[in-house]
């Protein structure tokens, strides 16, 4: 279920559409109540990570080892890859990711209700309600990662690894070298180029340096042939089509 900026969402929508399709059982009403409390307690531009803590506490789940897939500027590619590689586990596969993916919400200025038509831009808020939720979800996802993890980066742009991205600011810093065996970096350029960054050049080198400093073991592969062949067969490729 996707809620656009001009649609509405109430408790029945939330419980019926979000939870009935997720393959695990949770106390749905408790999660909804904590979500409402987080959004309505503060003005729209001041919903912090801490405001969502109770909600996330009520939806704790185990995360499988050797399956975590992180990404930056490769979202459509990530979804296509994960759809075929069924063993991979992305943030969108968690309960929070499943529930809130592609949704936008904030508090109405006058009433204690949701607003989907006039929410501020992320950049306009010190603590945007959507950004704060994804920040906490990303932190939880990274903290629970274990075994071998994969990072999918876009080799067709500058700053394939952006220290200011959600991966760079939250997930990378939340990975635990005591839980993670290897960080396997996959740098993939769109078919037909350009190949701007690679394992030995550009911002990917900065990522590797950070991993080394924090004591992680790592590998890095440019344009893995399996991924490239899979993409060639399954995606309508134009320059940059899958790196949004």
From TrEMBL:
Keyword Hydrolase in record: yes
Family affiliation: Belongs to the ADP-ribosyl cyclase family.
GO molecular function, a single term: NAD+ nucleosidase activity, cyclic ADP-ribose generating
Biological processes, Gene Ontology terms: positive regulation of B cell proliferation
Coiled coil: none
Pfam families: Rib_hydrolayse
Protein known as: ADP-ribosyl cyclase/cyclic ADP-ribose hydrolase
Keyword Disulfide bond: yes
Assigned keywords, A-Z: Disulfide bond, Hydrolase, NAD, Transferase
InterPro entries in the cross-refs: ADP-ribosyl_cyclase
Cellular component GO terms, alphabetical: plasma membrane
Domain of life per record: Eukaryota
Class in the EC hierarchy, top level: hydrolase
UniProt-listed Enzyme Commission number(s): 3.2.2.6
Organism name: Neogobius melanostomus
């Amino acid at each position: 279920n996707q809620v656009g900026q001009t649609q509405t969402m109430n408790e029945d929508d939330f419980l019926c559409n979000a939870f009935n399709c997720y393959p695990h059982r949770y106390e749905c009403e408790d999660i909804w109540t904590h979500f409402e409390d987080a959004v309505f307690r503060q003005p729209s531009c001041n919903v912090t990570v801490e405001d969502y803590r109770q909600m996330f506490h009520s939806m704790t789940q185990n995360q499988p080892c050797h399956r975590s897939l992180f990404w930056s500027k490769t979202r459509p590619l990530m979804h296509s890859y994960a759809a075929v590689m069924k063993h991979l586990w992305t943030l969108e596969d968690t309960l929070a990711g499943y529930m809130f993916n592609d949704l936008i919400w904030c508090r109405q200025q006058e009433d204690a209700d949701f607003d989907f038509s006039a929410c501020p831009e992320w950049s306009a808020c010190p603590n945007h309600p959507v950004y704060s939720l994804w920040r906490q979800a990303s932190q939880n996802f990274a903290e629970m990662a274990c075994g071998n993890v994969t990072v999918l980066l876009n080799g067709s742009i500058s700053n394939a690894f952006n220290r200011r991205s959600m991966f760079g600011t939250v997930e990378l810093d939340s990975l635990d070298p005591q839980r993670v065996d290897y960080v396997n970096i996959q740098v993939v350029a769109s078919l037909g180029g350009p190949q701007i960054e690679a394992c030995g050049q550009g911002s990917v080198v900065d990522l590797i340096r950070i991993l080394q400093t924090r004591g992680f073991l790592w590998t890095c592969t440019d344009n893995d042939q399996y991924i490239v062949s899979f993409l060639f067969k399954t995606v309508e490729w134009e320059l940059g089509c899958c790196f949004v």
